[in-house]
C-alpha cells in the first residue's frame, strides 16, 4: 500500500521551459524551412517528429497550455539533438537550449521512469561519468575481457544467440579499449617544437581517453609541431555534454565548475578539444552557469578560449607538411553534427586534410547528415540510428574513398561499426591523426644535418 494518501497533491518541480527567457521560446515563426534538414522528420514525415512540431510542444508547455507527458518525453528522446534545424533556421531559433531544457524537464518530472532505466542512468551518468578514475577502471576491465580472449571466445561459442537481439547488437558495438590511456601517452607538459608561439591546455575527454587516446596523443604532437606548449592536466573530468544532452542539468553544471577550476582559462591562449560533441558543449558553459555569480564571468572567458583543434590550427596557420614520395590516397570527410551545426566549423577540417600533400579529398554526399551516433542515441534508438548509418555508409561507398575522416569519437565508432558490418575495408580516422602521421613521415624523410 502506498504511504501517499490518494488525494494528496505531489509537488512538481518548477517547469524549466516556463523558466526560459521567453524570447527563446517564441522565436519560431513556423516557416518549415528546417523540415527537410531534420532526419527524424525525413524518416516519418510526421509533424510531431519535426523541429517545428517539437518547438510547438515546448512552447505549449512554456505557455502552460499543455502538461508535459510521457509522449512529450519520448518525442524529446526521439530527436537526435543533431542541430541540423539550427543551421537551416532563418529566425535563429536556439533549438539547442530548448532541447536540453525540454529533456531536463522530462527528467525532473520523471516522465519516463522505469527501474531498469533508473539503474542504467544512476550507474552511468550519476556515477561512472562523474570521475575519470571510475571510467578508467571500467575501461581496464573491458580491456582485460578483450585481450584475454574472453570476448572472442564468447562470440565464437554461440552463447550470444541465447541473449535478446538488442543485447547481441550492443555487444557487437563494444569499442576496443586502448592499451594506454592519455596520461600514459602524453606528458603533463609537452614543449613546442622550435619557437613557442602559444600555451594551450589539451582536453583528453572521458570516453575519448579510453577509446581514442591515440587521437589525443596525435593532437598533442600536431600542436607541438605548430608551436604550442601543451599542458595536459592529470585526472581530467567529463565535460558534462553527455549529462546536459540527457537531462542531467545539475550534474552538467557541477562538471563545468570543476573543469574551470582544474583548467583556469586565464592561464592559456586556448583550451583545445578534438571531440566535436564535447566542443559544442564546452563553448556554452556561460549559458550553463548563467545564474552562478561565482563562475559566470570565468565561464564567459572559458567559452572564448575553447577551440576545436581544426579551428585552432587554421586560426594560427598550419605548419606546412613535407610532400611524401608516395602515391595519392583518397579521403572523404563526414561532418560531425556538433562540429558543422553545433559549432559552424565546416571549412577548417577540410583545410587540415588539404594540408596533407598526398591526400585527395573527395566530397561525401550529404556530408552534414547525421550518422546516427548522436551521443548515446544509437544505444537508445537503435532502429533510427541503424537507418541513418546505412544511409551514411551508402554515400561513403559511392565516393570510392580509401579513408573516411571525421572529428568526433561517436561518429568514428558508429562509422567503424557500419564499415565493419559491410566489410568495407576502409580506414575510419580522425583528421588530426592523418596530419600527425604526415608530420611523422616528414620527420623521417628530412635530410639529416651533416
Ligand atoms: S535536432 Fe536534429 S533531429 Fe532534432 S529536431 Fe533538429 S534536425 Fe530534427
Ligand atoms: S525552427 Fe526556424 S526554420 Fe524551423 S519552423 Fe521555426 S523558424 Fe522556421
Record the strand order, biggest sheet: 1-3-2-4-5
Tally of DSSP helical segments? 26
Number of strands: 9
Strand content: 5-15%
**Major beta-sheet overview:** 5 strands, mixed
Approximate helicity band: 40-55%
Helix/sheet category: alpha/beta
Termini, distance in Å? Answer: 88 Å
* Residue-averaged pLDDT: 91
Unreliable runs: 1-9
Please tell me how large the radius of gyration is.
23 Å
Shape summary = globular
Which kinds of small molecule does this entry bind, naming each only once? iron/sulfur cluster
Which SSEs are present, and which pair or pack?
Blueprint (H helix, E strand, L loop, with lengths): L15 H4 L2 H4 L13 H6 L6 H12 L7 H9 L5 H5 L6 H14 L6 H9 L8 H16 L2 H8 L7 H8 L9 H4 L3 E2 L7 E5 L4 H5 L1 H13 L2 E4 L9 H5 L3 H14 L7 E4 L2 H7 L2 H4 L7 H10 E3 H8 L12 E5 L3 H4 L6 H8 L4 E4 L14 H4 L1 H18 L3 E3 L3 H13 L5 E3 L1 H15 L5
Parallel strand pairs: 2-3, 2-4, 4-5, 6-7, 6-8, 8-9
Antiparallel strand pairs: 1-3
Helix pairs in contact: 5-7, 14-26, 20-22, 24-25
One iron/sulfur cluster binds next to helix 4 and helix 6.
Amino acid at each position: 500500500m502506498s504511504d501517499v494518501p490518494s488525494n494528496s497533491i505531489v509537488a512538481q518541480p518548477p517547469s524549466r521551459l516556463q523558466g526560459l527567457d521567453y524570447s527563446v521560446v517564441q522565436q519560431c515563426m513556423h516557416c518549415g524551412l528546417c523540415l527537410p534538414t531534420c532526419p527524424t522528420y525525413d524518416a516519418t514525415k510526421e509533424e510531431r517528429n519535426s523541429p517545428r512540431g517539437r518547438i510547438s510542444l515546448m512552447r505549449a508547455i512554456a505557455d502552460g497550455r499543455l502538461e508535459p507527458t510521457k509522449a512529450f518525453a519520448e518525442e524529446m528522446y526521439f530527436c537526435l539533438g543533431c542541430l541540423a534545424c539550427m543551421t537551416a533556421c532563418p529566425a535563429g531559433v536556439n533549438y539547442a537550449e530548448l532541447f536540453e531544457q525540454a529533456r531536463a524537464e522530462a527528467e525532473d518530472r520523471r516522465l519516463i521512469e522505469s527501474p531498469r532505466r533508473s539503474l542504467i542512468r544512476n550507474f552511468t551518468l550519476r556515477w561512472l561519468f562523474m570521475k575519470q578514475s571510475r571510467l578508467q577502471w571500467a575501461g581496464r576491465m573491458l580491456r582485460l575481457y578483450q585481450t584475454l580472449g574472453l570476448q572472442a571466445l564468447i562470440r565464437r561459442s554461440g552463447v550470444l544467440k541465447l541473449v535478446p537481439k538488442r543485447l547481441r547488437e550492443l555487444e557487437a558495438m563494444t569499442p576496443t579499449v586502448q592499451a594506454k590511456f592519455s596520461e600514459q601517452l602524453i606528458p603533463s607538459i609537452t614543449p613546442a617544437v622550435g619557437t613557442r608561439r602559444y600555451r594551450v591546455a589539451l582536453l583528453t575527454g572521458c570516453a575519448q581517453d579510453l577509446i581514442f587516446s591515440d587521437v589525443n596523443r596525435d593532437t598533442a604532437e600536431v600542436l607541438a609541431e605548430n608551436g604550442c606548449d601543451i599542458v595536459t592536466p592529470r585526472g581530467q573530468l567529463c565535460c558534462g555534454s553527455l549529462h546536459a544532452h540527457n537531462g542531467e542539468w545539475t550534474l552538467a553544471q557541477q562538471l563545468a565548475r570543476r573543469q574551470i577550476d582544474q583548467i583556469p582559462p586565464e592561464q592559456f591562449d586556448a583550451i583545445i578539444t578534438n571531440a566535436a560533441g564535447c566542443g559544442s558543449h564546452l563553448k556554452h558553459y556561460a549559458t550553463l552557469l548563467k545564474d552562478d555569480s561565482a563562475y559566470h564571468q570565468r565561464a564567459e572567458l572559458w567559452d572564448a578560449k575553447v577551440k576545436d583543434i581544426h579551428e585552432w590550427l587554421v586560426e594560427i596557420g598550419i605548419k606546412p607538411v613535407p610532400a611524401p614520395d608516395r602515391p595519392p590516397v583518397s579521403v572523404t570527410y563526414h561532418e560531425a553534427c556538433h562540429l558543422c551545426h553545433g559549432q559552424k566549423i565546416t571549412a577548417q577540417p577540410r583545410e587540415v586534410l588539404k594540408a596533407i600533400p598526398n591526400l585527395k579529398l573527395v566530397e561525401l554526399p550529404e556530408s552534414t547528415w547525421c550518422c546516427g551516433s548522436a551521443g548515446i542515441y544509437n544505444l537508445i534508438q537503435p532502429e533510427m540510428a541503424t537507418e541513418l548509418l546505412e544511409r551514411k555508409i551508402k554515400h561513403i561507398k559511392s565516393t570510392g574513398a580509401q579513408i573516411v575522416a571525421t572529428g568526433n569519437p561517436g561518429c568514428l565508432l558508429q562509422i567503424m561499426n557500419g564499415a565493419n558490418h559491410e566489410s568495407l575495408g576502409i580506414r575510419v580516422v580522425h583528421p588530426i591523426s592523418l596530419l600527425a602521421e604526415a608530420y611523422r613521415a616528414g620527420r623521417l624523410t628530412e635530410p639529416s644535418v651533416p
